[in-house]
Amino acid sequence: MGMLDAITGSAGSKDNSSVISLVTGLLANSSNGGLAGLLERFKAGGLGHLADSWVSPGENLPISAEQVQSVFGAEQIQQMASKAGIAPEALSGKLAELLPQVVDKATPNGSIPDQSSLQGGLGSMLQGFLGRQNPQ
């Protein structure tokens, strides 16, 4: 089962496909450090234990919308919400729901893949997910 197959149940709407695009963009953006940079942000924000649980085999610890907002900051949440066309509070909640799952699926062996492997895999998974969306 692929990463996006695993999150389809929580990401079936058009708004959620925008959030999925944002999440995969965060993981694939090498100028911001990609997945490793994202995990580092959580560590710097005092939430490294949560992010580590998403990478490690085993249970993924949950994160709250407030914790997501504290890691990204209100300004970046606002910018991402604007891109996704949803309210900032809704985006924080969706990120809290999706990030543990996406990071878990992007790190199936309990380690962070190199950036080129990650980018190729995320692109393929995103295309597959968007191809399964119901036409609106």
Give keywords.
Arc Repressor Mutant, subunit A; disordered C terminus
Q: Which helices and strands, and how do they pair?
A:
Layout: H1 3-7, H2 14-28, H3 34-44, H4 48-55, H5 65-72, H6 74-84, H7 88-106, H8 115-131
Helix pairs in contact: 2-3, 2-6, 2-7, 2-8, 3-4, 4-7, 5-7, 6-7
Report the average pLDDT across residues.
79
For the record, the CATH class is Mainly Alpha
Strand composition percent: under 5%
Distance between the termini: 26 Å
Number of structural domains? 1
- The helicity comes to 55-70%
Written as H for each helix and E for each strand, in order along the chain, the element string is HHHHHHHH
Radius of gyration: 14 Å
Shape: globular
Query: How many distinct beta strands?
Result: 0
CATH architecture: Orthogonal Bundle
Fourth CATH level, the homologous superfamily: YidB-like
Give me the number of helical elements. 8
Low-confidence segments: 1-12, 132-136
Oligomer: single chain
Going by helix content, strand content and strand pairing, the class is mainly alpha
> Under CATH, the topology is which?
Arc Repressor Mutant, subunit A
Largest sheet: none
Task: Give a nutshell description of this structure.
The protein contains 8 helices and no strands.
Describe the structure.
The chain is an all-alpha fold. The chain has a single domain (3-131), classed as Orthogonal Bundle (Arc Repressor Mutant, subunit A). It has eight helices and no strands. Helix 2 (14-28) crosses helix 6 (74-84), helix 2 (14-28) crosses helix 7 (88-106) and helix 3 (34-44) packs antiparallel against helix 4 (48-55). The protein is globular, with a radius of gyration of 14 Å. Mean pLDDT is 79; it is low at 1-12 and 132-136.
